[in-house]
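Researcher: Good morning. I'm working through a list of sequences from a screen, and I'd like to move beyond sequence-only analysis. For each chain I'm collecting a predicted structure so we can compare shapes side by side. This is the next one on the list. No need for commentary yet; just the structure.
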Amino acid sequence: MAVAAEDTTDILSGLTNQLPDRDPEETAEWIESLDELIRSQGTERAQYIMRSLLQRAGSQSVGVPMVTTTDYVNTIPVDQEPEFPGDEEIERRYRAWLRWNAAIMVHRAQRPGIGVGGHISTYAGAATLYEVGMNHFFRGKDHPGGGDQIYFQGHASPGMYARAFLEGRLSEEDMDGFRQEKSREGHALSSYPHPRSMPDFWEFPTVSMGIGPMNAIYQAQSNRYLQNRGLKDTSQQHVWAFLGDGEMDEPESRGLLQLAANDKLDNLTFVVNCNLQRLDGPVRGNGKIMQELEAFFRGAGWNVIKVVWGREWDDLLQRDKDGTLVDIMNSTPDGDYQTYKAESGGFVREHFFGKSPETKELVANLTDEEIWNLKRGGHDYRKVYAAYKAAMEFKGAPTVILAHTVKGYGLGTHFEGRNATHQMKKLTLDDLKAFRDHLRIPISDEQLEADPYQPPYYNPGADAPEIKYMLERRRELGGNVPERRVKHEPLHLPDEKAYEVANRGSGKQLAATTMAFVRLLKDLMRDKEFGKRIVPIIPDEARTFGMDSFFPTAKIYNPKGQNYLSVDRDLVLAYKESPQGQIVHVGINEAGSIAAFTAAGTSYATHGEPLIPVYVFYSMFGFQRTADYIWAATDQMARGFLISATAGRTTLTGEGLQHADGHSPILASTNPAVKTYDPAYGYEIGHIVRHGLEEMYGPDSKDPNVIYNLMVYNEPIQQPKAPEDLDVEGIIKGIYLLAPAKIDGPRTQLLASGVAVPWALEAQRLLAEDWGVSADVWSVTSWNELRRDGLAAEEEAFLNPGAEPRVPFVTQQLAGATGPIVASTDYMKAVPDQIRQFLPNEFATLGADDFGFADTRAAARRYFKIDSHSMVVRALEMLARRGEVDANAPKEAIEKYHLLDVNAGTSGNAGGDA
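Model: Good morning. Structure tokens for this chain:
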């Protein structure tokens, strides 16, 4: 017989609705017993008894389904609510001023001639959620415990500015600079939390939806990492993330919940502002997003606290003896709840309470206005305080608070709960007056009517008792929030000895540049002062990158340690986990890797403890997959190293299309804070890494907030020693002469980077031996940085027409280099083409501009025409057009080298996972 699935979409887990009640009288007795227990001994004792019964039922094989959702009521019963410790009336008064100033700031930013927009409704609905935290929970950086990390919901930023205005941190002129970052420079406020735009104010960028929750989880883990490794006591620091219920549809918002549960991150609290609305309409019009999120978080192992109804509902729920009101609450879809708040008390009486005679009778003695004033829990100080306090006291798991609110709360009938409220930027004169009256702001009609586009802000001044109270609360909690500081412990950088392994080369051994980097990293980690600051981050590819050698000594970070017998325990490179482990091994999780990178790379500011994250990943799954997260990392001014391993379109033989990266440098070039290098040899890597560390933490750095991205390959080659007269400046700035021509003859210049440099050296030999052509070989360590320097020189010349223009570095380096240029890389043509405009020479680019595929390296390079023989033919073609070699030479070369036969390629060798 087929059994229908339980319909649990909207309400509960279907504990009884699929089963017959064979003895209703006995059932009633059991329920009466439970009711009496609650009446006589309270909900806490009843909770213990129920848990004991469920445990016993399980041991007796009684099939009790998991309760993934509870009734649509507050998780914390009235009898377990703590006393509210503050002065609620004072806090309510200045909360009204905050809501007024936040809305007015956005309204004024929409005045004629400016029109830069903003969001009014988000903070209006979430003000209570923030203010309870600001007044009683969020610890500033002067707190003895070190201060909390708060991820503010991006669209609520006007509320944080409004508070800073009342606190005296921002002026009225600053408020009027909202979203005018250049035209009002010096008095400008960024649209959202952008630390790079406001480096003393914001700490965490959040408005790219989903990145806030992801980063908050890894920030909480990073706090524990610092604690467990003995770098800093973070035991009193808490991470709070404020999120929208619509934002929870982002995969990143939910996709990393398991880490927080597995690591038992009880130093983390999510507060989901459940106003039931997306940007365009309801989140779950036909369903119940709070119930869905409760089930999801509970299933992921989180502690769930629902704050659904305000205190005005307590009496109604107490009088709801037969549960009819709760049944209606359970069965009413979100789309209806949204409609109720856009209508009136009479509408709610008829359409909500009127669903049953019992509930209609419950509110018979209430006026329509009283029904309208039945608040949602997210607007009730006491309910929110109880939830926050419970979250702080809960141990063993992270907590999510699901708070029921109204978007645009208090803004009037044109805004509250309306589908379009997110896009509404300004208020009419009537809206302003109604909003003022609702908040009891002492501003006259005449002041509003004088210029409806610029209604006044309200600030009673520093001597007002409310402002004194507000500032005293912040003093007791440790100072301003949000606030960013960059004072950190001094970082002792490694000396030259740590880079010796990179300069020595590999001797007779073959080693890929990935392995050359790993060897360097291992030596840097051995430095007594500096080594402990390195945070290797690996997404389940340590063995591919040759980093399994780190396991026995550095160990993998796991707060639980290793409580199992490792299958490879007898091997030298056995898998080792430890609470003191240094390696952050995130699994197959590139987004989480960047979140871990961000937390570690900003620890110098967040904790005053510098860490150097080194994230090693398949190059294809770096910027292509996680570019948005890297943007957030650079917004937060993270510092560290991104190592794009197994780089290039043809080096990762056998893997095929989606693993063949020919475009990462172009994607990386779009981020101004990322410096991308494509080194050919280990000694180049050593100088680049050393310079990167100096730029991030050296005393003479002009801009330390950078990320170095290194492309490294898995093709083993003989790594040469560093030349005696090495042009280190050229390595750092992007190009140096590696191998001058060895003969006289028609001149050409061969430019290559990374794994293509050996092809250029082979092409140099072939040109000389077979065609009498003289070729210089240049190692281009960074096409991207050369382009940036060239563009900067052009910009300087553009803005200073009378001055002697600065010559771009690449133009200087190649000033005496005559003849046509042939540039080849393991990337698409757009990579070397970045420098074409800065060179007067005839310029030809060879590139891998198609999809990747699985084959031998030599065949793939011959197919793309980027190998040594292709470089020779291309150089001969340009020289032939100039009349400097025989006109038939190019055709002869194509035939001689079988250029059209993919099986004739010889550039590259087999083997080498790393």
